[in-house]
Amino acid sequence: MSPTVLPAACEVLVIGAGPAGSACARTLAQAGREVLLVDQHEFPREKVCGDGLIPDAHAALRALGVYDEVMDRAFRAQHVRCVAPRGGHVDVPGTLAVLPRRELDDIVCRAAREAGARFAAPWRFVAPLLDGERVVGARLKGPDGEHEVQARWVVLATGASVPPLVAAGVCERRAPSGVALRGYVHHPELAQTLRELQIVWHPRLSGGYGWIFPGPGGVFNVGAGLTGSHATEAGGRASMRDVNLRQMLEAFASVHAPAAELLERGELRGDWKGAPLRCSLGGARWSRPGLLVTGEAAGSTYAFSGEGIGKALETGLLAAAALLEGGDDAAVRARHEAALAGLKPRFALYEKASHVNHRPWLADLVVWRARRSPRILRRMSAVLEERQNPGRLLSWRGITKLMFE
Ligand SMILES: Cc1cc2nc3c(=O)[nH]c(=O)nc-3n(C[C@H](O)[C@H](O)[C@H](O)COP(=O)(O)OP(=O)(O)OC[C@H]3O[C@@H](n4cnc5c(N)ncnc54)[C@H](O)[C@@H]3O)c2cc1C
């Protein structure tokens, strides 16, 4: 493996070529900025994910000009089936698609290169270069040793990984917000009939949910995960709950027949893999002099659903916009932080709504009501399309309304 040669300096160094970093790099390069995008892995590479593209991702992919390429390869679906503990379900209409991250991320990263960004891998971010308190570049490690790159600005888009946040001096919480496990299972027969995204709540999966997302070529992304997995200890330190995701997956198969069918009769492609999530725009500082933090590194994944591709792309675009407007250090940082702060109320409502994951009986109530009320189903669809916040539907007030309306 020979790493791409690195320049000694660039205008903007974007670290991490997932959706956030690549979206940021493409936008900056399109505007004529000299961008170096680096990643610790050569592309294409896998990223542990459910691969579900919900409407916010569709909108961001359109803004980036890669929508058609993504949709040509993706499995497209018209609704998500929400399955409640007693087995009742409701199909919520929405613009949905599934494409393995190995392909999706490669498309967005390639789009950044096509716009003129220089991509170099495998280079791992080790530490920032400092001039006093200001970040003026980064030290990167490749297979043959370390290399320093000077940069006017550094954008940290390293996802849910903690070491880069710590190294950059922006980590405020090491424990993740959630953890999840996924595998790819080939089952062409089931693919004839299971053509929607499925999300399943059940007391055996309490604290989270299981999912089955049909992808291209009769391959399903199957998984289970916990949201809000970090508990706050005395003293305010957050720590990981003891979680056995394998057991959770087995529990999923024991309560949901299609999951059992996939696990028992499908062909597993690759390994089951788990990964952390960082949610609700928390856990890290959003900037420091010379450095902007974006995507899941800034906690851009939704706590309720664990979805984060769309918001990673969006926040990558916001970081680019903050840089493109120019001005001094303080002005760029203030713009970036204000843009993230503008999203915070929406994230707070998704955090609130995530209590359904801890009280699965709520899913029974919502599904039961939605099956009888086209208006409630429309509201659920509006939540999926981000025209309405889930907090309104799943707050105690919303639930009381559901019960007594
Ligand atoms: C099991 C699971 C299921 C999920 N399902 C969904 C789903 O169905 N839909 C959805 O929308 N979201 C889902 N998510 C969330 C989604 O994966 C994230 O929100 C999204 O990947 C965040 O994008 P990002 O660009 O910020 O970070 P990432 O996609 O994690 O990209 C970060 C990049 O930085 C690189 N990197 C990390 N550290 C370094 C370093 N030190 N030096 C150089 N490079 C580095 C990585 O190699 C990676 O390429 C899921 C997450 C998990 C764990």
UniProtKB/TrEMBL annotation:
Task: Give start and end of each FAD-binding domain.
Answer: 10-161
Q: Which ranges of the sequence are coiled-coil?
A: none
- Alphabetically list the UniProt keywords: Monooxygenase, Oxidoreductase
Cell inner membrane: present as a keyword of the record?
no
The molecular function terms in GO held by this entry are:
FAD binding; monooxygenase activity
Q: Which InterPro entries match?
A: FAD-bd, FAD/NAD-bd_sf, Geranylgeranyl_reductase
Q: Which SUPFAM superfamilies match?
A: FAD/NAD(P)-binding domain
User: What is this protein identified as?
Assistant: Putative monooxygenase
Pfam families named among the record's database cross-references: FAD_binding_3 (PF01494)
Which organism does this sequence originate in?
A: Rubrivivax gelatinosus (strain NBRC 100245 / IL144)
Q: Keyword Oxidoreductase, does the record have it?
A: yes
